[in-house]
Automatic annotation (TrEMBL):
Identification of the protein by name: Uncharacterized protein (TIGR03085 family)
Coiled coil: none
Mycothiol-dependent maleylpyruvate isomerase metal-binding domain mapped to chain residues: 5-82
Cited InterPro entries: CHP03085 (IPR017519), DinB/YfiT-like (IPR034660), Maleyloyr_isom (IPR017517), MDMPI_metal-binding (IPR024344)
């Protein structure tokens, strides 16, 4: 089983256990909203553009609510668990597009609960996440007001953000650094150092793809 499928299955199990009203780290979203988002992303390509493009966000939100009304929470979780659909069935695309997606959203649900601990991830998955963080750092930090140096525990440094801005140092495992770069700063288990004002600005910045 690929890591994308493993994360999908684990997230599906967690969603089923928590029910539709549990909190997530996605601002304003319950588990019901997150389940609808994930189904929309794979099964309603016509509406997926609004996930990234604000002018299309209204239509995306309308379709997301329609999916909730049509399928209900249990139905959406079942659709999510059923595996990749549409374009995501193409060889390699599920792994490429969904490994990070499902990891991040799995942690969005896990870390929004009262009690949680970070998971110890396999070495090859950590390597995958470091490649994603390092390769996407310019995109992830494009709205950062400060320069950021990511220090991977065990080796590796990546730097992004505005070149002439003051710099903060962020240290952690690859998975935690990736979560930080995806805008989950306050829930990523990392060590952030630098001038207090610089760190505060970074922690409040709208990071992510």
């Amino acid at each position: 089983m690929t890591y994308a499928r493993a994360e999908r299955a684990a997230l599906g199990d967690l969603l089923a256990r928590l029910g539709p009203d549990a909190p997530t780290l996605c601002e304003g979203w319950t588990t019901f909203d997150l389940a609808a988002h994930l189904v929309l992303r794979e099964r309603r390509v016509d509406a997926a553009g609004g996930i990234l493009l604000k002018p299309l966000a209204g239509y995306t939100a309308k379709v997301q609510e329609s999916l909730k009304a049509t399928h209900g929470y249990a139905g959406l979780v079942d659709l999510l668990r059923s595996g990749p659909s549409g374009l995501y069935r193409l060889p390699g695309l599920d792994r490429a597009a969904n490994t990070v997606e499902f990891f991040v959203h799995h942690e969005d649900v896990r870390r929004a609960q009262r009690v949680w601990e970070p998971r110890e991830l396999p070495a090859d998955l950590e390597e995958t996440f470091w490649k994603q963080a390092r390769g996407g750092i310019r995109l992830f930090l494009r709205r950062s007001p400060v320069r950021v140096a990511l220090h991977r525990l065990g080796g590796g440094v990546a730097v992004g953000g505005p070149k002439d801005a003051p710099q903060a140092e962020v240290t952690g495992t690859a998975g935690e650094l990736l979560l930080f770069c995806f805008g989950r700063q306050s829930h990523a288990r990392v060590d952030v150092t630098g001038d207090d004002e610089v760190v505060a600005r970074l922690m409040d910045a709208p990071l992510g793809a």
